[in-house]
């Protein structure tokens, strides 16, 4: 080469823009950028617009194939319901749970897999499916003390969120719930404020924390006024369970003047039995339920009940699960919603 000839310096090759570059330019965290790129879950429209603008300015291109290989994502989550399918199909609680979850997933590419306990199912079949890589996480609802899902999921690497307080208080168990104990307390206080003194209860199944907590709250409310329980019978969270429990209750305690039922479906069963025995509501016996299903407002008389924000709890559980999947080790805290009493004609 002629020493007198000059060559232009070679410019260093510009590195491809990264998620961190997009985050810095749009003024948000790296995890928020990741969520926005992968479906927009829990990202506001304003934030999404800022991220889209940064992506355009930087010329950032997400490598979805690399992401899939690196994360081994199934892009699906499971809703686990350890209940017979007959109950799942008729109880509004499960329809509202599905409503809340699907609402939270509508702006994502995540699919929902429904797992319902089957009669005669081999022990551990559900947990084996969950651990097999078919789903990225699980939401568990209506779990029972003996179904072992708490222990199995707490010890598994699969992210999981429970709707309803687990029996165990240990790391790895994240949940969303309403304050059922305070809800039972509100029901008892309301009945006492209306002048009722012979107050009984129809409780849910003893192997579910919701039933236990609502009963404890009811007992605490009576204790505040120095009242003893006028009777207590338990049953499943169904209309049939409530009716059977109410029949036993009235057989042994015919002078009760108020009943707190642990669910609205149970309350409808109680209402049917009271009518069959010629008792009016609230003239002879006042009645309070729990859940505030749509059927509580449409019953005759309208049912006084405690709100159980099922759709909102399901939506929140789904959001928490997606966050844990996207950001492992997020150390999520339980989300507990305060209860509220809705007063109608039954009390």
From TrEMBL:
Transmembrane segments: none
GO molecular function: DNA-binding transcription factor activity; transcription cis-regulatory region binding
Keyword Transcription regulation in annotation: yes
Occurrences of domain HTH lacI-type (ranges): 17-71
Signal peptide bounds: none
Presence of keyword Secreted: no
Name of one Pfam family that matches: LacI
Keywords for this protein: DNA-binding, Transcription, Transcription regulation
All copies of domain HTH cro/C1-type, residue ranges: 18-65
Domain of life: Bacteria
Record organism: Arthrobacter zhangbolii
This protein's name: LacI family transcriptional regulator
PANTHER family per record: HTH-TYPE TRANSCRIPTIONAL REGULATOR GALS (PTHR30146:SF109), LACI-RELATED TRANSCRIPTIONAL REPRESSOR (PTHR30146)
